[in-house]
């Protein structure tokens, strides 16, 4: 019974169907009939102009999005546990040509305007220190918590205020679907002031396609050149577009996220006295001893330790009801 | 009737089957049971130790392979029409951190030990000029011609001889299968002295998986770090491994390449008085006037102009016999 | 009798005096009272607004200037013999984060609007090829020839015309002084449409200071950050500013260049039947056999071979009249 | 009365003399007769083989030294207040092609084997996190404290022990002279296990020359290529070599450092109840209120605030006895 991660879950049947429907040879790269509809599909979804590019990993999505906002001599303010800081093997340093990540503390894996202002205040004027060019926030956060629309808006205000240059605002939405599901399902609800979104589909039922959504159309041209330059412009791009379009169709992305969130909520309710963080998306962090973890593993549950006295369980779109129920019972019984 | 390129052809049914068989969630990234067999599968194929990594594009394969051979201050000797020089949007500059491509002329899209030696002789000693660190050859070449085993061996000797450092030898094998099919089917026949091979599958029946094959196992560790850092370590890597394994199984890669080559040969025979290059793989380059091209297009054939007085036709593994026959007739009748 | 290069010539006494006058401790970096006058000094000289930064080498000047005009995924059109292409050890690849140099042929070491247009026409639309972002011209050229004002203006027009983006225009002025001296001494005469100038002083009497002159003040901020980031912001920058100001004072830079040019002209006149290029600045290229070169060396003259059948002689600001006269005699007598 | 920094102090007369003696034209770059003696001069000083390269700034020295130890996908363990982390404008990100700085806490601006081990233990195996490739320590530290030989040796042991690869060890010796003076004057005393040293001269009486000293001769070739590529190979390099040789001659570097240290010690003794750190080199950090700082400035002393309740005074080789005595009196009287 697998609760390790959502990142290796199965592919949704509707995605398979869409990929197979795309098999007929079409124009290569992103010139095919599917890829060419992506901009409009996301503009529709968000109710505003945007450009959308597929890529094959969240790391590529984050880094190519940031590359539209950050010059090589700049920096990126982000949470100290952010994926770009902790889990991308130095990819931001590569894609941004040596730009500096500037980690901030923050409860629930979230950063605040206050933390941003405090860090900016530490940067001396002049050229001796790296100045931030952008802010990156993770929605849902690395500990499964969700920025409320007003929190994002406040960060966007901080980004646009001084001192110094207007900062770009990037959202790492590897679990954007889970966040939107938690917030009630309005796709654009938490995007005010966001310049670039990494919209994750792979953890949520796709196979190998994430979307970079750029709300500044001028950035799209840059991102397209950089995608090719990074070897991320696949020649049979139609298969990536097909995945994304299948996920958007009939709001499958939301339905899948709701299923994952519901499973996590069930676990969270069962372990409510042990929760390290509120369960808002599809991740559950609980205090539990080494012996308790051993017992759970002995009972057939797979999950990650989270430091010495804690564990992380992650649910996916395809969580099996009986597995979830079994783990909930086991957690309640600890 | 499509003869534009092999890069957007359909996916072979066996590849689909293998991908679907891999749908069951497994360990993420390259920890799954399929990815873990790749090293052995290629070692089997080539009869020598090697490491094999999947990536999603030929550009990524070429550049990550070269990154194991070239330091940022070095250069890469390659044909002036090489894909890395002409068609990868500057990706080598990105992946190699500013290393320099050093283009060489050469008939048939191939370079020679003499051209290599001549170029090396131009590089002054000392630090004022970029020194080559590696050679990259394309098999089959950009104009569909094939390096014979002794030609590769001679280049490998040139790489290992001085002056200066031993050069690494990379083979861009986007159409390696077509080349091996032409050479008689012994996979290792043209690899003596090659350090790193980009083994292409996407043009030959796969969807989104190429292999980087490294004959120096010490380079594999480096390539794995760099792949992650470039956003090319997909979380559901099992689907890429499945594609490659399906292509290797029962030598599907060779069968597909033979089919594409046979179609090209049929076209080449029909247009034998117009051929600009011998037809050795799956590309046919012919002299033909603007009016002739118009006529062919009017008859329903799609292909690229190749400068002012020429055209390129490319066949793929799924070339339809009646389309090929029709084009052959049309070419013969020009 | 040294005619190898002007790059290691002695330092002019006025430069020594100015450096020593700057010895008193002052604010560090470029906050000292001398560095702060540079912008105004060059604005005065050129009669237009500009920003000026000192750096310690022509390579740094060229590459930092180009970094204000070229994004990492772009390219630089330049002559195939340009210093940035041939003699800077790959520095452009480093400073421009992998941007591509795009060499052009051209008589007299100069490029033309026609060559620029022809090269741009070869770049396919889309992301598969590197597009130029800037043009770099060398004044005087690598073979000692000078762009006339109307030639620069025509290139600037080409830079601003399409297809595609407006290109930046950089002038590598390692021997800008010699070019201006040849053109009659009006400093801004050949700068119409130039965005960034590397103004060389080191070959012309300074010790270790070149100026980057940026005619787009917005670029100055970028260049200042990049200079620091490249380790080129010296803490005792006042000594570099002092050198440059001493060279500007009373047009010492022009007087020195005229002296060097006059010496070269004397040599050129003596060897007029052997000249490979007109002698316009301070370099003389002559056809001469191996035996003739041996004879000249036997007579005490040091210079470089220029391929098999030619030689290059360079004169500096401190050329000694009797050495020049002796070489002129020797050349005439060959 | 200037106690802001040692980085803009005057140039020592012996350095001026040596520079002027080098004025006669010589071979360019580092082929001149002075530059060619540097390796031997430092080998003599340290009693072991080494290579030595001049560069014009401490930032360049640090980053080029680190570039011999760190690959682009690696990291550098350093103190969280280290110059490379705080004050080099992102230069390490540039020179190391995006490698990651991994800051550590530590009393007195120094890091310990324990902190190194703790940080290494946090790095998960595999490619998802950046692994350190090198350690950089600052001698004397950013707060003027000195690593004892046994402290350096313990760090070197930590560098060579696992887990994972042997780490390179770099010493940022911008104030190496002050540290050696404090330790008793044996130049090699604190260098056991150090691979690369940035040996600072500019703060200590030179104008524009620091030395990169590499104890692995194989690294020298790499550093020479990278220096050129970074625009740091000056054409009149003889003037940098002259500065360094003048500083080494008769141990002028030690004499100057002793003078600066003595001045700082005098201040430290006067303010001994306010010291935030022991005064071991030429920097004095004292607790003092805003009003006290105002009073000192009113009395004519220039120095930096160090956060809200502290100040930093720095002494240089040319500290004037009466200024030092005056400040000592003022501090004692606070």
UniProtKB/TrEMBL annotation, chains A, B, C, D:
InterPro entries: ArAA_b-elim_lyase/Thr_aldolase, PyrdxlP-dep_Trfase, PyrdxlP-dep_Trfase_major, PyrdxlP-dep_Trfase_small. Keywords: Lyase, Pyridoxal phosphate. It comes from the Bacteria. One of its GO terms (molecular function) is lyase activity. Belongs to the threonine aldolase family. Pfam families: Beta_elim_lyase. The keyword Lyase applies. Residues 2-286 form the Aromatic amino acid beta-eliminating lyase/threonine aldolase domain. This is Beta-eliminating lyase-related protein. Its cofactor is pyridoxal 5'-phosphate. Homotetramer.
């Amino acid at each position: 019974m697998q609760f390790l991660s959502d990142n290796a879950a199965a592919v949704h049947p509707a995605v398979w169907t869409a990929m197979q429907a795309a098999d007929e040879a079409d124009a290569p790269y992103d010139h095919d009939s599917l890829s060419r509809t992506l901009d409009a599909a996301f503009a529709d979804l968000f109710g505003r102009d945007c450009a959308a590019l597929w890529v094959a990993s969240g790391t590529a999505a984050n880094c190519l999005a940031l590359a539209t906002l950050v010059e090589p001599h700049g920096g990126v303010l982000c949470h100290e546990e952010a994926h770009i800081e902790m889990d991308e093997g130095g990819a931001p340093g590569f894609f941004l040509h040596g730009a500096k990540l500037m980690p901030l503390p923050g409860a629930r894996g979230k950063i605040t305007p206050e933390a941003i202002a405090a860090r900016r205040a530490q940067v001396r004027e002049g050229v001796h220190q790296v100045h931030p060019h952008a802010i990156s926030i993770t929605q849902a956060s690395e500990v499964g918590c969700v920025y409320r629309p007003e929190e994002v808006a406040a960060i966007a205000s901080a980004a646009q205020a001084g001192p110094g240059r207007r900062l770009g605002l990037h959202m790492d939405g590897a679990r954007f679907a889970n966040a939107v599901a938690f917030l009630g399902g309005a796709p654009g609800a938490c995007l005010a002031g966001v310049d670039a979104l990494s919209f994750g589909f792979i953890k949520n039922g796709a196979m190998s396609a994430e979307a970079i959504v750029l709300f500044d159309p001028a950035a799209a041209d840059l991102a397209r050149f950089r995608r090719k330059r990074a070897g991320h412009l696949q020649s049979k791009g139609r298969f990536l577009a097909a995945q994304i379009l299948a996920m958007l169709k009939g709001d499958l992305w939301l339905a899948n996220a709701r299923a994952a969130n519901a499973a996590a909520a069930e676990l969270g309710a069962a372990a409510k006295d042990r929760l390290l963080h509120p369960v808002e998306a599809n991740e559950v962090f609980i205090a539990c001893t080494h012996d308790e973890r051993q017992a759970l593993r002995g009972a057939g549950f797979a999950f990650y330790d989270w430091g010495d006295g804690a564990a992380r369980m992650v649910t996916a779109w395809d969580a099996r009801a009986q597995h979830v129920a079994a783990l909930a019972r086991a957690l309640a019984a600890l």
